[in-house]
Amino acid sequence: MAGVNWLDPGNAKVRNYMVAQLDFIMRKYAPLGLDGVFLDFFRYPNASSGTGMEIKGYDRNSPEAKRAAIIDVAKRVKASADAISKKVGHPVKVSIAGIAFGNAPSSPNQFSSTSAYRVNYQDWLTMLQNGYIDKAVLMVYNPRDDYRSSWVNLCAQLPEAIRSGIVIVFGAYLDGSATNTVNSMGKAAGAGLGGAGGYSYACQIQGNCTGQNSFLNALGRTIK
Description:
- It is globular, with a radius of gyration of 18 Å.
- By secondary structure, the chain is of the alpha/beta class.
- The protein has 9 helices and 5 strands.
- It has a 5-stranded parallel beta sheet with strand order 1-2-3-4-5.
- β4, α8 and β5 (195-198) form a beta-alpha-beta unit.
- It has helices at residues 12-29, 53-56, 63-88, 115-118, 124-129, 145-156, 160-163, 178-190, 212-223, and strands at 36-39, 93-99, 135-140, 166-170, 195-198.
């Protein structure tokens, strides 16, 4: 975010603008086959991201108001997507990049302790519970097993209707071996989630593009 302009969803005009842009895209392209929109960076930036909002006092909204602002955009975009779905005769889904920084709490009741909730004001759990989004694609990048397992274990405790809306995506590009990625995806698949994946940035394992077939074969055997 350093050096990048950022629109604060705490401002009602910004929220209206965001919803209008997404509504325009869905209405224009859903009749041509568009089946969803994915909202990346759908959150407040970290204080260390270079925006300096809170330090300089640009953003005076309370934490509750910030979370409510993000939820409001999701709710309105989902309502628009549902209305458009009825018109075009096929589903138009709404998904977001979900924050999963740091180890997850041991219980869903402690979700308010997560970075998503406290720092980035992105309450993706409430969005899923209320049907304001169809999918939360959790960014579980760090290769540490305790970190990845904590998020899988947290999500596994959620009701099936919520679990099915969660996709955990691991930072395969940070893994030292294919084994770590395959094991992580296997755990996610066994938790009854809506899916699992891996960010690769061209190559699956730390920039090493060799052995991709063996990696994908091993992954296929694990997911099955």
